[in-house]
Amino acid sequence: MPTPRKTPAIHPDLESVMFTQAQIKKRVRGLGAELKKTYGNGEFTIVSIINGAVMFTADLMREIDNPVRLDCIRIASYGSRTKSVGTPEIVHSLNIDVAKRHVLLIDDILDTGKTITLVSGLIRKLNPASLHTCVLLDKQGRREVPFEADFVGFKIPDKFVVGYGLDFAERYRNLPCIGVLSARLQNSHEWS
Length: 192
Ligand code: 5GP
Ligand code: MG
Known about the structure:
This protein is an alpha/beta fold. The chain has helices spanning 21-39, 54-61, 114-124, 183-186, and strands spanning 14-19, 44-50, 68-76, 89-92, 102-110, 130-138, 151-155, 161-162, 178-181. It binds guanosine-5'-monophosphate and magnesium ion (MG).
């Protein structure tokens, strides 16, 4: 008799799963195709905002057969809070030259818009040939600075999500799905 297929158990710290591993994979593939339409076979330079965008960047890059260059930029914003407070700061900037290059800026999630506005401004000052932005998630309803990304994976409601690179106090980045962190943990003070 065939063994019944088990549905994978939801992580105990998640309230719900927003996107499964399979849904993410499918959408990332779709984004790769959208990028192809914009860039054709041309070379472009990816600037990834870490740590949050690591998984997304790594997977998206593998959906692209163009020649690409990669650099990462590190921004400090949240700490272990679940709401964006204050002004994001650049902690580690670019090492490669982006002047006259086609640049694709990648972030995990577009929330208030402050981070991507800051980093886009910095890149524009370096005179790239073009600048496009790509985010996996977009919390459109939370914008404080008007910003629309050129490529968006999923539009999501105002929920604090973790997994697939997104963290809470540096945890959960390794979850293969994206889920809503349970309210019990969001309000807990046991994190540092
Ligand atoms: P923004 O500057 O647009 O407010 O925030 C962007 C950054 O805030 C993202 O790169 C991400 O690190 C963090 N962020 C915003 N919303 C969420 C969320 O729901 N979950 C997690 N883990 N990080 C978030
Ligand atoms: Mg981030």
